[in-house]
Automatic annotation (TrEMBL), chains A, B:
GO terms for molecular function: RNA binding. This is ANTAR domain-containing protein. Keywords: Coiled coil. The keyword Membrane does not apply.
Amino acid sequence: MNSQQVSCETGPSASDFLIASKDSELKNLQYFLQMGKVVQCISNLVHALQCERGASNVFLGSDGGKFSEERQTMVSRSDRLNEEFNQALGDIHQELTCHPVSPTLLNQMAAALHALDGLSGLRQGVSAREITAVDATGHYCQLIQSLISVVFEAADVAVDPTIAGPLVAMVHLMNGKEFCGQERAVGSAGFSSGHFDSALSERMVHLIESQERCFEVFTSFADEDSIRLWHQLLANPREQEIHRLRQLGVSIGRYKPLDPSLADEWFRLMSERMDDLKTVEDSVEGCFHARCTERFAEARNSLAHQETLIASLDARTTASQPMLVLCDSGKDQPSGESWASDGVGQHFGRSIFHLVQEQTQRLKDMNDELQGAREALEDRKTQEKAVLFLMEHRGISNDEAHRVLRRLAMDQGRKLPDVARALLSMADVLK
Amino acid sequence: MNSQQVSCETGPSASDFLIASKDSELKNLQYFLQMGKVVQCISNLVHALQCERGASNVFLGSDGGKFSEERQTMVSRSDRLNEEFNQALGDIHQELTCHPVSPTLLNQMAAALHALDGLSGLRQGVSAREITAVDATGHYCQLIQSLISVVFEAADVAVDPTIAGPLVAMVHLMNGKEFCGQERAVGSAGFSSGHFDSALSERMVHLIESQERCFEVFTSFADEDSIRLWHQLLANPREQEIHRLRQLGVSIGRYKPLDPSLADEWFRLMSERMDDLKTVEDSVEGCFHARCTERFAEARNSLAHQETLIASLDARTTASQPMLVLCDSGKDQPSGESWASDGVGQHFGRSIFHLVQEQTQRLKDMNDELQGAREALEDRKTQEKAVLFLMEHRGISNDEAHRVLRRLAMDQGRKLPDVARALLSMADVLK
């Protein structure tokens, strides 16, 4: 009978790996607690850069006549927030790079930092008025996009649904707000020149629609408090005013001149809207932080509890017979079967079995819950891929590609991500 | 102009994160190099346990008359391979648990180790003939499944397509081989009793079909050498013989008695088949190891190369003006734009820019390539979920649930994973 004894002395035991599994969850949460600080800094910095972009636009559009002072104030604020961002990165650099979460997230961080390195040059160009408003806007847009992409990648690696949800809400809110900022710039260009040509009008339509879709996803993942703030924003009388001006921008023909004084009103209204959106962002960020802290405390307690439990089980059964309790890996029968030759050690076996099974079930439930967040991000990626494919395939602009996709979805009565997926599935035969 | 200078001294730089991104890839590969050893041990141990299960079945089926010696030999071999598995785990325990890859993988490891703890009890039951052949088989199956699931979870966390592919091939081959082992047991039961009742026949059909589907996925992910071995296996005259016996098992009515001496032939043929499948497994394992080593060396060289490059760029441009090169995050224009106030530092900017962009493109390509492997695993998970749903919803067995799904797919002329997905999408309204 001796040869039938399985030697388990040489390697780590089931309980070692159970503890390691819990511990790995804990490390992930810790990582996101720290990522939260970075996300907050990015949200602040992006807002400051959006203000700086707006002021730079007015400055360049007025040939340096307007907003010279304001712009300097905003530049200083961006610098201060960039400093904070750098400090936050310095604080967690060790953690971010030692815990090798995702090469993609780290590389996106590199891209964002590199884009920030170009900021002084851009500002010099603006100060010296050596760059057009359109080009300056383009550069600011890319810089801001590279920062938002960091949050996107962070959401993409989150494995805990309670924290992935707020991150998905956050990144869609940030994207929506950025479309709003771009709409402000497009509207300003139209109103101040006294007319919208069809390109400007179309771009405005694109930005309005893109914004709305982002906010839709935001509302399906945001917490109640943030959604309440969002509804308050929508109920603000300012939104009616914005709607009225938007109508002028998207419907008026190029031959009907507009009152150029509308430009100031438009800029003011849209800037207020963006400040309000920032308040919603802060609320989402607060919720994200609260959930991380909560889940972290929970996970730490659960780990400590299990360690105590396992230690006491180990102590009780050190010398007992090995016995048979087979774990159900979720593959076959819905519940685990057990077969024990006698009562000795049964308690130990059952308990470890239950702990492992409990963890299996928890991880499975979490994964199912995560599905929604994953799909939202996947949808975004698919659409971006479809847009890139159309741009390359037909040599059209980003806006046009978006329009083609939207028209396709409308014509077929299908959702945008479905149309994008269908298109990509045919990409190979279309090339 | 001073206030426009972005201070970047406080935090880590773009190159720090670029290096971190490369380094994170390297750590991932190192992890899989070590996981490879565990996968190899699991493949060996599973094969030994399958042999042990077969021998135990014959032993119990012959009331202890046959295979008593053989069984002891196989038990000793399993013990030796279990020992090796434990040693391998001991060697890499540190790495496995410090690099917090996936709580699910670690928990599955706990489940497998716990199942192994029950092996002695099971063997005692078999030796004393206190357990039926059917029950013993059931316990061995669950144990083996829990070990294969570890490989599945490992494949699920692989982010490098060159190593995810072989792992997907591996886990499907292992699963197919396990279905083959179960078919051997079912056939043995039928032939030795001289007839197949309809339950036995249906189970045999299920196992044959499941095997074939696994091998299909295997062939779409395996390397050429392994596929060649697989074709050699199929061309072996033994396969004709197996086919003939299978036909007897699945088509003969319960009233037509079979020659019980066929049992020995069946057992021998199927055991040979499994040994051949193990040879294919070894080849896949070899390919996996070779790819890991290759990719690891590649990644290490690339990291070293970039570090040198970045250091030389840093040295050349320490005192230069900051300038503007914006990174394209893949969001808008297909190529990055750059705008530099003058030539100073342009080389530096361009180079870091290109390095980051190169890494972005590489990670994107890798991710696209990974898609196929991900989908194969996702398909499997979806089918298992659909089967579990049917089992719970209609109170039917695992086999029946599989049959229902297959019939549905056949009737609708759709693929099994699609039918499973469609079913799950309706699960909420069916509950």
